[in-house]
Each structure stands twice: as structure tokens, then as C-alpha cells.
Amino acid sequence: MPFSPAHRNGTLSGVFFVAIFAAAATFISDISFIKDLGLSPLVIGIVMGIFYANTLHNQTPQAWQSGITFSGKKILRFAIVLYGFRITFQQIAEVGMDGFLVSLIMLSTTLIFGSWIGFKIFGMEKDTSILTASGASVCGAAAVLATEPVLKAEEYKTAIAVSMVVLFGTISMFLYPVLYTAIFEHATGFLHMSPREFGIYVGGTIHEVAQVVAVPASIPNASAEMANAAVIVKMTRVIMIAPMLIVLGLYLAYSAKKEGTDSESKMKLVIPWFAVYFIGVAGFNSLQLVPQNIVDIINQIDTFLLTMAMTALGMGTIFSKFRGLGLAPVYTALSMFIWLVVGGFVVTKLVCT
Q1: For the chain, how big is the Rg over CA atoms in Å?
Q2: 148-172, pLDDT tens digit by residue?
Q3: Structure pTM?
């Protein structure tokens, strides 16, 4: 046990060690140049963690490892629960049924398509395929983090998925404003998108919340309608992470039973309770009983805890474990990226027309 008398000091030291890295990542993310690139402290944290894992890992006490593991597992789940304070059910209702449908269609198709093509076509491990698909289909790095405990995946698999989310999410952040100003805004017929339609398209297909916010902000004279639609649709996708994880747990239990490898430990994956608590917190937040300034503080704390979790996962990522993967993760993420850009446009137009 991490906090048993024999391990307590090492665990606390490890947690504190991770917190120092997370604080540094938070500070770096506030630098204007880094902020303009749309790099969140979560991304910076995992980069710093990976750097540590492949340079200084052997220079720190082994007893600290329990604290690093605790940060990447237990603190992560608590942070996902607190993530519910970023969402209200009123926000989801505000965008209407078309925004909800776009979110649902793009999430489910991207998750299924990405998991299948990564595992069946490009030969990746099933866990890595599902993690990469979850990041693209829901909300980027946070979704990868939330899915990792359900799969009980190794740290390096999570790092692969996050790196793909960062790569193609960043490309999206620069591509979408160009598509709108060069094509969608001035086109006629099927290619034309109103500000609201484009906002739904952005919120339904781009990886990270920060990237969704950045796209309308990068478009000259973008309307508030576009920005609001993008953020609300994105948050609709975020809240869908809870039912997605529950369905994923049921699927894993069914697959294990079908393959004859069922065990009590796998059956425990059926209901990821932290996802259920996440919905409960979002429902509580919808009642608006907590003052907004307190909610803002909770969200800041939550971002720091997520940064700690991401940093801890990076600290478990050794490059030698990547050998043999080749370009399969890139091909998988690229395939999903093409589906999100092209398929997402078609889905948005069909639903909103």
C-alpha cells in the first residue's frame, strides 16, 4: 500500500516531486509565446516527465516511485471527477439537438474507426489503438488520461496516444481558420458554412478544448455565435466521456469472457465509478449552487492535478518501450484526422441543414 507505514515517506516524497514538475509546467505554460502556441500545462508536463524518465530516472530514490505511480493513477481519477465542474447540462441544451448529434456521431464513429484501423490495419496493440482513438474522439489528452485506468494500460502507451493528439490537434488549430477564411466563409452551396455551423464543426472535430477556443479567436471578426457554438459542442463531447468509458468497460468485460480470459479483475472494469462521479459533479454544477469564483478556483486546482497526472505518466515513459511500433501510431492518428476534417464537415452539413 502506498501510504502504509513502510512506504508513506517515499510516497509523499514522490508526490511532492511530481508536484514540483507540474508547478514548473504550469509556469512555462503561462509564458506568452507558449500560450500563443496553444500548449497546455498538461502537454508540457508530459514532455518534462518523459525527459526525466530518459535522463535522470536512475538518479532518484526508488522509494519515490510509489508516489509517482499514485499521481498517475489515484490523483488522475480524482482530477477527472473534478473535471465535471467545467460543464453544465444547460450548456449542452443551449446548443440544440444538431450540436448534440454532431458530437455523438463524431465521437462514436471516430472511436470505433480509430480503434479498428489502429489494431486491424496498422498492427498496433489494442490498448494503444483505443487510447489514441479516445483522445481524437473526445477531448484530447484529458480523454486519454481518463481512458487509461479503464484499460489499465502501460504509461508508454498513454504517452504515444497523447503525442498523437498533440501533433494532429496542433495541426487542426492552424488548419481550420485557413479553411474557413479561404473556403467555407465565401463559398456557395454545400461548401458554405454559417458562423454557427462552423462553430459546431470546430467543437465536434478538434481534439483539445484549448484548441477549440483558439480557432475562432484566430479568425478575423469571428462572431460570438461561432465561438459559443464551438465551446458548447466541445463540452458536450467532454461530458460524453463518462458513458463512453462505461460502454468501454462493458465491452472489455464481454471481450474477456468471449475469449475465455475472463477474471474477477477484468470484471471490475465494467463500471468505472470515477466516470459516474464525473456525471454527478457535472449535474451538481448545473444547479449553480457554488459561486462562479469558487468554481474557477476548483478548475485551476483540477488543471494542476491533471498536470501532475500527465507528468507522472511521462515519468513512466521509457523510449526503449517504443521500439517496434514504427509509424503505426502516426498512420492511425492521420487516418482519424482525415475523418474528423472531411467526415466531420459532411456530418455537420447534413445534420445542420
Answers
A1: 20
A2: 888 877 777 888 888 888 788 878 8
A3: 0.70
